Amino acid sequence: MEIVTQQGHSASILGLAASGGMDVTCIAAAFEAGINYFFFYDFTNEKFLAGLRSLLATKREQVLVATGSQERDLNWLRRDFDSVRQQLNIDVVDAFFVEYIYPAEDLEQVEALLEQLQLWQEKGLVRYVGVSTHNRAIALELIKRGKCELLMHRYNMAHRKAEESVLPSAQTAGIPVIAFTCTRWGTLLKGHPNWQEKPPTAADCYRYVLSHGAVRLALTAPQNLQQLQENLAVLPAPPLSPAEIARWQAYGDLIYGNGEDAFETQWM
C-alpha cells in the first residue's frame, strides 16, 4: 500500500517528527525541501504545532498529518482524536496510530481501539490506521491480525532483529513501515572506542534504515535548522551499496554490544 497526500502525491522518504527544542522554522523549511509527512506524539511541542498550523492553513492537501494516542480507553481515545482536529483546525487526520503497544497489554483491547479508528476511517475522518511498537512479537501479531495499515517500529543499525521477521512480514502483507529511533536516540552518532573510522552522520543512519525494502519512510527530529539541513542530505542521496550496508552493520554490532542496557531491554 502506498501512502499519499490528499492530492495523491507520495509520502516523502523522510518524515519530520516533533521534538522538544525544535525551531518553529523547521516545519516550513522541511516542506520546502520536499518533506510532506509530519508526525507528533502530543501537544507539548508548541513550536512544532505552531509551524504545522501555519503550513496547513495554505497547504493542507499537500501535507500528511500523522499522530496518535497512547490512551487505551475509548472515551480518552476520542478525546485525543477530537483534540488533534480542533488544535490543527482540520477535519481529516491522515494517519492516526495506537501508540507504544507493549508486551503486558491486552491485544483484544488494542484491537477494539483499532476498530474504532476503522469506523472513523469509514466516515472519512482518518485516512490511514496505524500502530506503533518497539516489540517485535507484538508487531508480528498485529500484522497477522490484519488490523493496521501502517506500522511504526524501532529500527536502526544497532537494532536489526526486525530484519529477521517483522520487516519481511510487513512487506509481504503490504504494510508500509515507518521507522523511528533511526539514530538510536542519537547514540549512533557518537562513535565507539573500537571503531577507528568516522561514526555515521544522521543522514547515514536514515539511509541505512531506508535501504530495507519494507521501510517506507524514516522519522527525523532535528533540534534546529542546521541539523535539519544535514538530515535532508538523505533525500537526494543514492541507495547504500552492499559494502556500505555491511560497514554500518559492523558498526551497529559494536554499539549494540551485549544488548543488556536499557535501550535494548526497556520495551522488549
TrEMBL record:
<protein>
    <recommendedName>
        <fullName>NADP-dependent oxidoreductase domain-containing protein</fullName>
    </recommendedName>
</protein>
<dbReference type="InterPro" id="IPR023210">
    <property type="entry name" value="NADP_OxRdtase_dom"/>
</dbReference>
<dbReference type="InterPro" id="IPR036812">
    <property type="entry name" value="NAD(P)_OxRdtase_dom_sf"/>
</dbReference>
<feature type="domain" description="NADP-dependent oxidoreductase">
    <location>
        <begin position="27"/>
        <end position="190"/>
    </location>
</feature>
<dbReference type="InterPro" id="IPR053135">
    <property type="entry name" value="AKR2_Oxidoreductase"/>
</dbReference>
<dbReference type="Pfam" id="PF00248">
    <property type="entry name" value="Aldo_ket_red"/>
</dbReference>
